[in-house]
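Lay summary. Proteins are chains of building blocks that fold into shapes, and those shapes determine what they do. In this project we predict the shape from the chain. Here is one chain we studied, written as its sequence of building blocks.
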Amino acid sequence: MEFIFLVPGFVMLVVGAIWFLMLAFRESPLWGIGCLICGIVQIIFLIKNIHETWKPFLIQIGGLVLIAIGSAIADPGM
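And here is the predicted shape, written in a compact code that computers can read:
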């Protein structure tokens, strides 16, 4: 039952992350590499370019919510 939430959540998380990285690399290769290596750089890039990055960010948040729901309803005995 939890796979109904976990699989779409994981797909949303990956799609949002790839989209975010594409925006970072489009801005500059240094932004892209920085976003790949360091989470703080991702936050700075998000704040600096919020008008472009809000959609992939919200997709990632939605994916995390689905993963959290799937994990919460998962059977702990598995």
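What the prediction tells us: The two ends are 12 Å apart (CA to CA).
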